[in-house]
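Annex B. Sample input.
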Amino acid sequence: MRTAHELFSDFGTEAFAERTRVELEATGEHARKRTVETRGDLTPQETQIARLARDGLSNAEIGARLFISTHTVEYHLRKVFAKLRINSRTKLAQALPPEPGAGSFSLAGALADHEIHASNP
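Annex B, continued. Sample output.
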């Protein structure tokens, strides 16, 4: 339902977007209203997928973790790249806004820290 809401919003079909927003809220989800000012902002789903891609997960791994198809992951990553004006996963770390309440974390950095601590008992 969330994907349908995002698609309807992106296509500019406001009546359908509003209907899916109401249906999402009926299930306990909250969908933000899209406006001209927020059109370039990443949706929560796009942000989550972008962060997982930034951390080194493949599309298949992201899909398995989020219970979505690899096609849906690819779709969201295309939108992320367009919104952030980048063309590769390697640029995600610099282009993504910082995570609220967290320092800069990456899987590669965490693994490097672990290796350093593991080699120095």
